[in-house]
Amino acid sequence: MSKLDGKVAVVTGASKGIGAAIARALAKDGAAVVVNYASSQAGADAVVAAITADGGRAIAVRADVSKREEAQGLVDAAVNAFGRLDILVNNSGVYEFAALAEVTEEHYRRHFDVNVLGVLLATQAASKHLGEGGSIINISSIAASIQPPNSAVYSGTKGALNVITGVLANELAPRKIRVNAVSPGFVVTEGTRTAGIAGSEMEAGFVAQTPLGRAGQPDDIAGVVAFLASDDARWVTGEEINVGGGVR
After folding, report:
1. What pTM was computed for the model?
2. What is 8-189+218-240's CATH number?
3. 12: which of 17, 36, 62, 177 fits an S-S bond (Cβ 3.0–4.6 Å)?
4. Among the options 37, 95, 108, 154, which is catalytic?
């Protein structure tokens, strides 16, 4: 019997990168998975196809979690398809570094709407269905602790997310729902490739500062999330777990 047999998970922003790896890992451990996407239906469909080809259960659902009705619709789709909800992984996020002089209202609102408001709205909708043993995992970033230059807005959203994680862990604890955060270090994904970071001098700089001496891969993050989703982590809540090869 797999660790997540009988469980149902929603993974936001799961059409590629870390989110896709998380969706596959949860399905491998037995969960039925709702693969959320905002724009890349082809990517989400590919993740669903990979899961079902391995004998798992998954559906793709489009929703912009920064909009209340769409976040609620995402959760409703999960419950309608699979009858319950046990796990929410808040992975949807945007990131764009900008120097202070370049920060605009649009830049600020885009980041905080998705990275912070989206987490609150998705969690609000999901919490109505989560019962004892439910698990919420928020994907944060090591940027909140190392605070690199030109990341005031992005790092600010992740700092807010870490505080929200602690607050909600306390708020939902009486219902025996656990809330934790995972903070990846530098990870090679489609996003970091598109941004020109993967394979660049910037990546080399990150690796040079990483005690384990390499960049992260999406599966490095997914395994930790799968642990937090399972009963193996039944005594873990309110924690922020850095998964960055030793970077602090």
Report:
1. 0.96
2. 3.40.50.720
3. 36
4. 154
